[in-house]
């Protein structure tokens, strides 16, 4: 069913929606009205989509994608998304940035309100797509529904959502990963304990925080397997404190795991980063060698021609 609401947002919301979601949606409607936009609504029994009136096809794509994404998340985490999430598709970047926490963001979730907001104008910028971005944000919704906020560290929340969405995060960054590479080389990591409740505000800091979160969670899956990581999440869901759950499942403290992870990524990255640091010097030296080689060949050629001329005169 589809409803289109005017600038005053006079459309009737579904009774099942929470009061918080209604208020947030009303706020978004008024924010869009400030830009002279209409807010359209597309909904099913599982999801409600609010969108810029020019994004009708995108809204229908979300409606079609949602059951698959919800099923994928359930298959991975063994938990279901409760209630009916609200998904907002914003076309204007400036409007989105009024609501976003960071200017680097392309989407964000508000788990307490069962709400996802996506900057659709960035969905065609590699590596983002509507499907993977939606999966990332719905991952946040799912995790917070089953794990209390104080027991779900920010690094774990972001790391898991990047892992489940094929490594895609929710911010614009250099996808080559040079920030983490340099941190591995210089040992200037951000301690996971500092990323428990919030990420840095500066651009380099927030990029490093996202990359560390992804790398550490990926390390846990690769090193211990999916079953043990899900056991760890299950303990968090039952109310076990993070450190105790880590010790119980992985038989070591979080600090010990963190050191092992640091050690695992440094050898693989150090030589690549060192080469990247010296790239200009290497290219300059290579160019100098080529020039020297060409000069020597020219000198040899001229000397050979001179000897041939001398031999001709003697004959």
Structure description:
By secondary structure, the chain is an alpha/beta fold. The chain folds into 3 domains: about 1-145, Zincin-like (2-Layer Sandwich), CATH 3.30.2010.30; about 175-275, no CATH class; about 285-315. It is about 60% helix and about 10% strand. The protein is built from 11 helices and 6 strands. The protein has helices spanning about 20-35, 55-75, 95-100, 130-145, 155-165, 180-185, 205-225, 225-235, 240-250, 255-275, 280-315, and strands at about 1-5, 40-45, 50, 85-90, 105-110, 115-120. The chain has a 6-stranded mixed sheet with strand order 1-2-3-4-6-5, with helices on both faces. α5 (about 155-165) crosses α7. The longest helix has about 35 residues, at about 280-315. The model is unreliable at about 1-20 (pLDDT under 50).
Total number of domains? 3
Number of discrete helical segments = 11
Which fold name is given in CATH as the topology of the largest domain? Zincin-like
Rg measurement, Å:
27 Å
Number of strands: 6
């Amino acid at each position: 069913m589809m409803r289109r609401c005017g600038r005053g947002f006079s459309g009737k919301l579904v009774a099942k929606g929470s009061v918080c979601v209604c208020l947030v949606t009303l706020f978004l409607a008024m924010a869009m009205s400030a830009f002279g936009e209409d807010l359209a609504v597309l909904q099913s029994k599982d999801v409600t989509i609010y969108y810029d009136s020019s994004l009708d096809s995108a809204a229908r794509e979300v409606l079609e994608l949602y059951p698959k994404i919800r099923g994928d998340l359930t298959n991975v985490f063994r938990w279901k998304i409760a209630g009916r999430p609200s998904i907002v598709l914003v076309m204007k970047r400036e409007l989105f940035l009024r609501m976003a926490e960071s200017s680097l963001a392309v989407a964000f979730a508000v788990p307490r309100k069962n709400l996802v907001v996506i900057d659709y104008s960035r969905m065609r910028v590699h590596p983002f797509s509507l499907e993977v971005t939606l999966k990332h944000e719905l991952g946040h919704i799912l995790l917070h529904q089953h794990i209390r906020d104080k027991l779900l560290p920010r690094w774990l929340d972001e790391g898991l959502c990047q892992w489940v969405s094929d490594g895609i995060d929710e911010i614009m960054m250099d996808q080559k990963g040079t920030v983490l590479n340099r941190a591995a080389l210089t040992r200037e990591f951000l301690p996971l304990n500092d990323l428990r409740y919030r990420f840095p505000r500066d651009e380099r800091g927030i990029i490093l925080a996202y990359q560390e979160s992804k790398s550490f969670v990926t390390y846990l899956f690769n090193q211990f397997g999916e079953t043990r990581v899900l056991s760890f999440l299950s303990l968090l869901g039952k109310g076990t404190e993070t450190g105790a759950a880590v010790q119980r499942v992985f038989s070591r403290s979080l600090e010990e795991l963190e050191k092992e992870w640091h050690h695992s990524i440094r050898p693989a990255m150090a030589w690549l980063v060192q080469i990247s640091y010296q790239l200009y010097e290497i290219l300059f030296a290579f160019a100098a060698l080529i020039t020297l080689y060409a000069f020597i060949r020219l000198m040899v050629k001229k000397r050979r021609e001179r000897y041939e001329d001398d031999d001709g005169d003697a004959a």
